[in-house]
Amino acid sequence: xxxxxxxxxxxxxxxxxxxxxxxxxxxxxxxxxxxxxxxxxxxxxxxxxxxxxxxxxxxxxxxxxxxxxxxxxxxxxxxxxxxxxxxxxxxxxxxxxxxxxxxxxxxxxxxxxxxxxxxxxxxxxxxxxxxxxxxxxxxxxxxxxxxxxxxxxxxxxxxxxxxxxxxxxxxxxxxxxxxxxxxxxxxxxxxxxxxxxxxxxxxxxxxxxxxxxxxxxxxxxxxxxxxxxxxxxxxxxxxxxxxxxxxxxxxxxxxxxxxxxxxxxxxxxxxxxxxxxxxxxxxxxxxxxxxxxxxxxxxxxxxxxxxxxxxxxxxxxxxxxxxxxxxxxxxxxxxxxxxxxxxxxxxxxxxxxxxxxxxxxxxx
Length: 364
Prior knowledge:
Strand content: 15-25%
Number of helices: 11
Order of helices and strands: HHEEEHEEEHEEHHEHHEEEHEHEEH
């Protein structure tokens, strides 16, 4: 099937994700991926499971021949408690991978292993997620060393009154929201004309916090396309009319995501990021969302993970930790898969070094 009506189908599938939309497919097509939706219908012809599959051709060093890899970002989508349906989808993806003669297919569905920090009083397990990992491992799938998306995340329940949200927050978070308001921080909704400004702040943020981002065209195309469809809302924090921080919130179905945050070094003591998140929660609720995904949490909770500080910020907003099964690979060409796994870290490191140099130039 094609992508024309794919979003309408997504909306009736369980837990639809923004990374499974046709807009995300178009974004990835612009950087070299092919995209194809897979759909499973029930006996009445109604969609019950689906997956947007991205496929990319690549040339492996030494071997020289071209091969392909397949990836289902934050999918597939289905009722994972239905053993018959999940079996059917997994077999469908395995068959698809073989037909494409791909080295492997990767999935990272949003299926919880549990919530809360392991070993804490708030920890709970999710039986379908545990069962799924057992079935994948028993059917020659491998837990992937390449986790493209965050394995864990923090989600905020937007149902109920704003007073309920505030009550769930840490006291320090509530204080910082009020501090930003008292300090003259104002939040406005961004427009397409603001996107270059957001990118410049994003470059400054990446340089300061030591992470790698893509080039400007990638983000302007991504933000612009989702903004035009009503699937993204930029929020900009200003002091005396000057932008000091911003976020880009994405929305689809009844869920919102905090994917991108950026800030300058100016007026950081005024805590604009706290007020931005508070405003994002209110905007998401007004637009019909019931969940706000803060997108990203540590893999481990010993305090040594580089996401630990970010996690404390997100936890302070009243979010609940969700631990998912992570990414799993099904190799159809085990030898080539082993070569790919060996070569990939070297390629990624080289890419990061090159991109880090370009970011330094942009900042300077």
